[in-house]
Structures are given as structure tokens and as C-alpha cells.
Amino acid sequence: MKKRVFIISSAFILIAILVITIYSYYDFNNNDYYVPVKDRSMLKNIIESNLKKSVIKISGDIGSRGYNQQDALDKSIEYISSEFKSYGYEPLFQTYSAKGREYKNIWVEKKGVNLPHKVLVVGAHYDTVSGTPGADDNASGVAGLLELARILADEPMEKTVQFAAFTLEEPPFFRTRSMGSYVYAKGLKDAGVQVDGMICLESIGYFTDEPGSQQFPLPFFRLFYPDTGNFITFVGDIHSKRFLEKAKDSFKKGTDLPLESLSAFSIVPGVDLSDHRSFWKFGYKALMVTDTAFYRNPNYHGPGDLPETLEYSRMAEVVMGLRETILEVGNKSE
């Protein structure tokens, strides 16, 4: 009898331990996955290391990637392609001509399980203005793109997610139909693809805790935003406001990095200064994730935009927050 009681008691204890363990990983009310502190720290360290590796490769080893530096652009494509392949994706290329030269967008697709016709695009441009290594602008964005593709490779999602690296975002092609992102967005529109939203990674690695380091496109912005450049920003147009708010809410579940946001008309200075603009042109909702570039970074478009000027720990927090955003947006049926 005592032996039977012991066995039954032991069984209940094991079941209790199992239940407690499961609850430590899941919140059944919200159905959200919670990464234990130790595992989160390990994940962040890996992300941080990979971000630094990619930034050094793209902006350090390859260097300036201007529209007339074909060899550097080709090397960038090779690196991005090899990284995508190492995560288990099959890279796809969109080739087009501009000013008599051939340029390429490169992208991979993670097919949705139940809503494959609905697409979320995550993109970043890999070119620079000539003469700058472009660590922040925009090797940081490409590094973030690659890491998001890697850590989400085995995550099942309802919707299809496309990870795209664009060419020719910088002058002299900016705001023209030869922008890589414009060509890409037009291709989606012409094919009748239902794009539920686009997330543009534009300069995500420069942070500083120096008071007064943050500048703004308009003077009165100082009344509403911090003057210290230690935050990341989500920027969208009025049409994308709801999409931005959802992205912002889910981002906060993955990180405590300070986050600011702005939803405004595209005529406001700085609001449309990257590839998200191209998606707006075709009626798609899109937002830019940015450290605000030249409104904070004194090395913008100059020779000093080097890998060692970036803050990889906070870059990793941006990626961890965006992981939650993509998981939530990619699984929402609405």
C-alpha cells in the first residue's frame, strides 16, 4: 500500500513539474511564446555576433557599393545569396537595366501555411553612395534582414514572408522608377500579389546616449520626441498608420529598447527617405525602421560610416523586437 501511494505521489509530482515547466514557456491566455532569460541572452549574443560579421563583411571587406561600382555590387549579391542559402532558402533574382547597366534585387520567400496568398515583405537596400563604406547606411539594414531571415527560417507562419535586398536606393536613382524597390513593388502589383505590409530596414545601427545628439526634420518635433539618440523609430504615412501601430505593439513584446514612431503625410521631410516609399506608390502599407540616419549619425554618407561606429548590442535588440513583429503580423488573418 505504501509503495502504491509513493508511486501515485511521484506521478503527481512529475505531472506538476511538467505543467509548471510548460507554463514557464507559454502564456495560454495570449498564446505568445516567451523565451527564458538565459535562452534570450544566448539568442541575443548569437544575433549580435552575426550582425557584426555581416556589417564587417559588407562595409569593411566589400566597402563602397555605388551604382557605378559593379564589382562591389556583385560581391554584395554573392554574400547575401550565400547567407540565404546557408539558412535553407533558395535565392531568387530580379534583374533589370538602368542607364545601360544591369542591376539585381535578390530575395527569398518563406511560404505561408494557410494564407500563402497574403504577403509580408521585409526589405533593405545593399547599395551606397559612392565613396562611403556604408556601415549604418545600409549594411546594418542588410545584416538585420539576413538575421531575421535566419531566425525565422523554421518558424511556421500563416502568411508568406519575402525577405528582399534591393539595389539602387541611393542617388542618382532615389525617387525614380529605377530604384530596386520600385521595380520590386511594381512587379508585385503587376502580378496581383496581395501585400499586407512592408517593413523597410534603413540604417538601424547608430545609437548614442549623448544628450542633444538627436536632430529633427522640423523644430517643433523637439516638443514630442527625445533629444538623445538612443531609440529606434518606426515611420509610416497616414495610410499605413494602423499597420505601424500593430508593428509597434508587437515589437515591444520582444525588447525593451526605446521605440518612437511617426505617422505623417509623405510631404513631411524625412518621412519617405527609403524603400518603403516605393511600396506607398503602389498603394501598399509600409513602414521604415530607422535610427533616423543623418538626423543622428554624423558619419552619414561619408568615409567615417565604418563598422566600429555601430552599436551591435542595441542592433540585436532591434532584430529581436522585429522578430516578434513579423511573427505577429505574419500570423494575423485580418
Protein described:
The protein is α/β, with parallel strands linked by helices and 334 residues long. It has a single domain (35-329), classed as Aminopeptidase. The chain is built from 8 helices and 10 strands. It has an 8-stranded mixed β-sheet, sandwiched between helices. β3 (92-98) and β4 form a beta hairpin. The longest helix is centred in the N-terminal third of the chain and has 26 residues, at 37-62. It is globular, with a radius of gyration of 21 Å. The protein starts with a helix and ends in a 5-residue tail after the last helix. The relative contact order is 0.15.
Count, helices: 8
CATH fold call: Aminopeptidase
What is the rounded Rg? Answer: 21 Å
Mean of all residue-level pLDDT scores: 90
Largest sheet entry? 8 strands, mixed
- Helix-strand category: alpha/beta
- The CATH class turns out to be Alpha Beta
Low-confidence stretches: 1-35
Order of helices and strands: HEEHHEEEHEHEEHEHEH
The CATH superfamily is identified as: Zn peptidases
* Spatial order of strands in the largest sheet: 3-4-6-5-7-10-8-9
- End-to-end Cα distance: 58 Å
Total discrete domains: 1
The gross shape turns out to be globular
Q: Could you say what the CATH architecture is?
A: 3-Layer(aba) Sandwich
Write a concise keyword list for the protein shown above:
disordered N terminus; 8-stranded mixed β-sheet; Aminopeptidase; 334 residues; single chain; alpha/beta; 39% helix; 8 helices; 20% strand; two-stranded antiparallel sheet
